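S1.2 Input.
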Amino acid sequence: MMTIREAKILDKSGADPPPSLPRAAYIHLPFCRQRCFYCDFPIVAVGPRQDLGASRLVQDYEAALIQEIQTATGSAPLTSVFFGGGTPSLFPLDALERLLVRLEKLFGFGADLEISLEIDPGTFDLPQLRRYQDLGINRLSLGVQAFQDYHLTALGRHHRRRDIDEAINLLRQVGFENWSLDLISGLPGQTLEDWRQSLTEALAAGPSHLSGYDLAVEPGTVFGKRFQPEAAPLPPQELTAQMYSLAHETLTQGGFDHYEISNYARPGRQCRHNLVYWRNQAYYGFGLGAASYLDGARVSRPRTRAEYYAWVQSLPQAPEPPLSRREQLLETLMLGLRLREGVALKPLLKDLSPKEERAFWRCLEPYLQEGYGEIFDMEEHGPELKPGDGGQRLRLTAPEGFLRSNRILADLFAVL
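S1.3 Output.
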């Protein structure tokens, strides 16, 4: 949920392993039927009926994407590719294939490649799903958000419950095993029983992964103009906390691992691409509004088509300065404490002065004593951590520590 004994024996010797070449790529496909009332992503709304197959919109955007991709150099074979949006299931299949061919030609694909694509109910059919399989797309993320038509209407979603049922049925027919389902809690007028029903329906649908996000009211959106955070008809903070705890209880009892603040997975079905973000590893970002993290520097693309196209024409550009060591430390904390695996303490603390380290532990001590965080060894967590991530680690507990993550991080940032 995004609303997130002092160990003096730590060995701070040794150095971090050298940063690896990026092995993950995000591609933003911005086209949507309409803008949802909570959405502040960079999208292009095309209306309910426009066929994008021969659209000049798509042709121009594809050309810009390919031009940008061609400027990237120095990658190891990709192990994950993620097509996000927008609604990527609206993107023409031939254009999608051309992008994949270009990525493979430029970077190469690893043997165990994860290719994810976001899809919305009502935007795909059985032949389309089979074509995805033919293209090597082996992970889908279905944007359900709610199972009640009145909530879907209030969210400004294009689909309805009948479309959700049809989408799940199509996934079963084609035998798609690795797929995720998205839900949103904290909706206007949403009750705990509404949320319980959505969780129950989600489990019954049989996904291998589930994301449960707390509604964020962003400035400039329809919701941002209609509602004030934590004010009626939005549920109060106490109720959204109950929703979060209910999701943890329901989904973990249903066989899911609560591996990240907002994400749950069946064994072996964690989203490998998103783990790259949360482990603060290098990745490519291509397309409107996308961000990349290369050579220690973060670069965000413009959020409008005109500005993005002009930006692509100006490539290559002078490299951005890398983040400072302190900025990297703070980002590692912010991202890594979202994960159940937490963060390795040795590389985290090695650049702190003795005074800063004492302040760090004084800040954490009450949270550790209350059971909102814990120190553990890699060997206790299991084999999913990478070699080199061993030794003592810090993590927040689920769900209580995750619920307090924002406060804990704010306190840690203040002392660092």
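S1.4 Remarks. Residues 1-18 have pLDDT under 50 and may be disordered.
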